[in-house]
Amino acid sequence: MNTTLFRSGLAGLAAVVLMIGVPAAHAETQMYKSALSAAAEVPTNDSKGTGALTATYDTATKKLAYSVTYANLTGPVTAAHFHGPAAAGANAGVVVPVNGALASPIKGDATLTDAQAADLQAGKLYFNIHTAANKGGEIRGQVAK
């Protein structure tokens, strides 16, 4: 009986050691960025505004965390959000709204759907900042790895 108990314990210990040694499936954190300008708007405008977006995307949780800075806009920001799916030079609807303060820096996070995640990874999302003088968007930038 002691031999059976010893073998069972040894087998259990071996199983635990094997489980520890097996690498777990882990998330990948992807980095994204975008330069925002009036020239990237469709149609373009004559704003002197500029901006920059940096973001991280966690492939396991599908969480997108972002920070956007901007300067020299024609007035206060009235809205900001991610649009897609669209290539550079094309327009699309809002897919991820920005909730909260719109003062620079804009910081936020969102959990993406599978379709939004696929569009992000394919470079088909853009970030747009709107003002009263440029209701359709004052500065914009395509989000890319």
Describe the structure.
With 145 residues, the chain is of the alpha+beta class. The protein has one domain (29-142). It is 19% helix and 37% strand. The strands form 2 sheets. It has a 4-stranded antiparallel beta sheet, with no helix packed on it. It is globular and about 45 Å long. The relative contact order is 0.23. The model is unreliable at 9-24 (pLDDT under 50).
Short description:
The protein is α+β, with helices and mostly antiparallel strands and 145 residues long. It is built from two helices and eight strands.
Q: What distinguishing features does this structure have?
A:
145 residues; alpha+beta; four-stranded antiparallel beta sheet; 8 strands
